[in-house]
Prior knowledge:
By secondary structure, the protein is mostly helical. Helix content is 95%, strand content 0%. It has three helices and no strands. The chain has helices at residues 2-30, 34-118, 120-129. Helix 1 packs antiparallel against helix 2 and helix 2 packs across helix 3. The protein starts with a helix and ends with a helix.
Amino acid sequence: EKDKALSELRRVRNNYKKQLRDANHLIEERGDTITQMQQRADDIIKEGELSCEKIRKSCLLEIEGFENELHRTREKCKKRLQKMHDAHDIVVRDLRSRELTLQRESVDALEAFTKERKDPITTHNATLKR
């Protein structure tokens, strides 16, 4: 977009230079007064400056728009990243909880197995009663 604007500025500048050259030729060809041609040149320059200023303001507004969009995108990304961190924390807590549960169940199963091996008749009778 900047390159496009700079290209437009060059085109406008070259156009006004050409018009200025044409005005100088008119002075020679027609014998117009120097004052009139200087006024025309000043008008051309003023038009060029106004055109350049419009293009510059347009570019600045566009840049500001890009910066605003970049800021909004950055904020969205920060929020998404925070959600991912939060979800990760939840998964880690859940996995730790499951790990502790499995450890307790393993210990309980081992204790039950050990107890059964020490007293198989009582364990068998308890199983039958259930």
